[in-house]
Write a structure and sequence with these properties.
The chain has helices spanning about 20-25, 30-45, 70-75, 85-90, 100-105, 110-115, 125-145; strands at about 5-10, 15-20. The protein is mostly helical. Strands 1-2 form a two-stranded antiparallel ribbon. The structure holds zinc ion (ZN).
Amino acid sequence: MGNGWVLVENHKGVTGYAQRHHLAFNVEAKSPAIAYFAWKEAATKFEEGLATTFPDPILYLNMCKAPHCKPNKEKGAGIRACVHDMATLLQGSGKLTYSYVKVERNHWHPDKVSRLYPESQNDEFKNKAQGLFVLIGVVMEKIQASTAPK
Ligand SMILES: [Zn+2]
């Protein structure tokens, strides 16, 4: 086998060769890295002005079981992901640093989203982007607090 091919085994115990760049979809399908990759793909489409639905983070990763996070997660509108899930999702990028997360946050600036989706029926997009912008801001604060000199 040439470069990039690896022996894999699926959940039924069937083995075969797969290309390394496809491998991520076959194993650890619930890892933050996979969730991040899928979310990022939807987020990129959103940034290109091509989205028909909002890339809600909670649809990609919903792992936090903290009781105080639960009520918000069950509410219908807005961003339902909690800061813990958001941090885990962003951690899936493999680079959970303040500067990196700041770049992620800027994608969701409400003004930018208003320009991308000027139609009034996209209020949902604007509201959710606003919520996501704030939520990622909280992740940034947490990173800053954990890395600040004591
Ligand atoms: Zn939580």
